[in-house]
Amino acid sequence: MQSFDNIEYMIKDTDVIHVCTTPATHEQIVIAALQQDKYVVVEKIFTGYFGDGSDEFKGDICSCY
Fold first, then answer.
1. Number of domain units in the chain
2. 47 inside domain
3. Nearest Cα to 17, choosing from 30, 8, 5?
4. Can you name the residues that pair with 19 across neighbouring β-strands?
């Protein structure tokens, strides 16, 4: 198995990127892959905590610890 120092190198070395990360990281990964003309599959998680509906909830910050 190959490892990469950063995501840009990984994207460059692949044909398809399958994004199976937390929703807060989807955008940056997808944009980086599309900028390199790669095919992208985004995995949406069907379970998890997405807030209580209040304006104070920030989906990109985990406050569950």
1. 1
2. no
3. 30
4. 42
